[in-house]
Amino acid sequence: MATIDIDGVRKRFGNVDVLHGVDLTIADGEFVVLVGPSGCGKSTLLRLIAGLEDISRGAIRIDGERVNDLAPRARDIAMVFQSYALYPHMSVERNMDYSLRLRKTPAERAREAVEGAAGKLGIDRLLQRKPRTLSGGQRQRVAMGRAIVRTPKAFLFDEPLSNLDARLREQMRGEIKKMHQDLGATSIYVTHDQIEAMTLADRIVAMNEGLVQQIGPPRELYEHPTNLFVAGFIGSPAMNFIDATYRREGQNAFLVVGEKRLALDERDVADGTPVTLGLRAEDIAIDADPEDPGAIEATVELVEPLGLGTIVHVQALGTHIKALSLAVVEHRVGSRIWIRPHPEKFHVFEEATGRRLERKAQFAAELPA
Amino acid sequence: MSAATLKRAGYWTMHYAIIALYVAFALFPLYWLFKVSLTPTKLLYSEGVRMWPSRTTWENYGFVLTNSDFPRFFLNSVIVSVSTAVLVTVVASGAGYALSRFRFRGKFWLVGLMLITQMFPLVMLISPIFRIFTPLGLTDSLLGLIIVYTAFNIPFATFLMQSFFDGIPKDLEEAAMIDGAHRFTAFRQIILPLTLPGIAATLGFVFTAAWSELLFALMLISKTDASTFPVGLLTFVSKFSVDFGQMTAAGVLALIPACLFFFLIQRYLVRGLTAGAVKG
Ligand SMILES: Nc1ncnc2c1ncn2[C@@H]1O[C@H](COP(=O)(O)OP(=O)(O)OP(=O)(O)O)[C@@H](O)[C@H]1O
Ligand SMILES: [Mg+2]
């Protein structure tokens, strides 16, 4: 097991800059999840760590050793590909012990390792089969097995579950989590899936356009996104964004949205600054008291029952807003209701820069060190 | 039977009829070759055009095998064609892999140059090649032929191999390299086995091209000792005053190695080896 230190890493393909300087330190045994929109450079970063691409600038250190010029085989890292990349002409067993045979592991030991890994993944009865005779889920397990037969310094996963159906994905997600608890291996995991990111990660790295936007524990990204991008990317349903203007009159700060005034704590920004108000669906109560000054009149547009709760789409404040209620919602489409966003849960971002505007008083206290 | 099934049946009948017609058209000359080789010389002119002679004989074959230089030509052709096919395929595999997998400076121009070599009529190149080969002692030599054939076949074979490598996911060798393989080991143990159909196709293509090449064989070789089979066929014409029976018998014999060769490689020509490599 190992630490991975990514230091000012840049990557350009021809004259296209893909990574513009990524800094990230991963502790021994940590599970880090990379998220970001398609094309933001997640796979590229993973491939740089694995040694499949050359680093244009900066350095990657594994256990303190600079690996920029080391071939993939010398880095002792295992990777699970989105496509699984199983060797089609080899049996499952040969696929799994290929790395051991390359390392001239004694046959006896190799077999034990393969059987151990196969047992863990429940594929012991498939060992003699060829990959093309396996189902998608079985192939996925073989790909995982191939990674865990040897004890590499770190695991890299590039969207390993994205080709599976929802049920299987959920199951494998649990198994990966359990495997990580057992092995305690340093892992970097790329995914598009919000839930995978939230459940698996010790820390999430949110990336956009080749830059790291925020690094932190899942809850921190969820509750304190540092900018509009992270706020919009993390969480499902996505955060509601409402254009507003920040106003301050004496001691009172408030947001102006159309005709409506929403009171809030003071922010460190000039009076009259255009801002974006971010509201998570679950922070908006429906069926609020119309007398409440924070209540907003809304028209129901769509009701989506989830089983767990209900997403109510409403038209309010001149835009579409999604509210999540855990109660059973009986409202009909078109009916008028009152919603009330939780004022403590306002996320305010400067419109021009997208950066988060923290509460003035608690700014220092609320940010974890 | 409903109108729809009738229509379908009609469609398929048409379909097969057209295919059968084409196959018959393509194979008819071969049939004729075989027929003439079995026809006794006396009957060849006296019987006129018939689908099958009234009497058949193997004596043309006997003569060709025992009393002519044909076995010599045949052996020369085998040496030249097999060497060329193997050499070209080895080089084309390496080059095709590089073109498929690597970005390197000058790649565009390299590919362009290779394409340009394919655009000249070969006749233009005969005299310069002759001038170069004579002082080197490569005329009248099988080695000279092998060199020329190899050089001319490499570009096309390289593009052919490249397209086969392009069809194999890059992930596979990357997985192997992460598993601990050197790039060359990954190539040999993972990529090459999956490219066997491509290698077989390339071998077959180059072998056939070299086997039937006439122009250079005629120009660079004058000794009977070093003649290949297509040149040998021409000597039949002059020496035996166009003995069609013997010539066609030699022709039929010359088909055998090509058939044998394709028989040997045909199981690799069947595609689909890569199925199951990635998500299906
Ligand atoms: N070999 C390459 N040559 C040129 N450009 C490349 C190459 N590989 C990746 N890129 C570019 O780099 C950018 C980042 O690609 P990358 O595969 O890292 O994205 P990603 O974040 O993994 O996206 P996805 O979520 O779709 O997998 C893309 O714009 C892509 O076009
Ligand atoms: Mg990717």
UniProtKB/TrEMBL annotation, chain A:
> Tell me, which GO biological process terms does this entry list?
carbohydrate transport
Q: Where is the ABC transporter domain?
A: 4-234
Primary site of residence: membrane
Q: Which UniProt keywords apply?
A: ATP-binding, Cell inner membrane, Cell membrane, Membrane, Nucleotide-binding, Transport
Q: Where in the cell is it found?
A: Cell inner membrane
Q: Gene encoding this polypeptide?
A: ugpC
Matches recorded under InterPro entries? AAA+_ATPase, ABC_transporter-like_ATP-bd, ABC_transporter-like_CS, ABC_transpr_MalK-like, ABC_transpr_MalK/UgpC-like, Mo/tungstate-bd_C_term_dom, NA-bd_OB-fold, OB_MalK-like
> What protein name does the entry list?
sn-glycerol-3-phosphate ABC transporter ATP-binding protein UgpC
Note whether Transmembrane occurs among the keywords: no
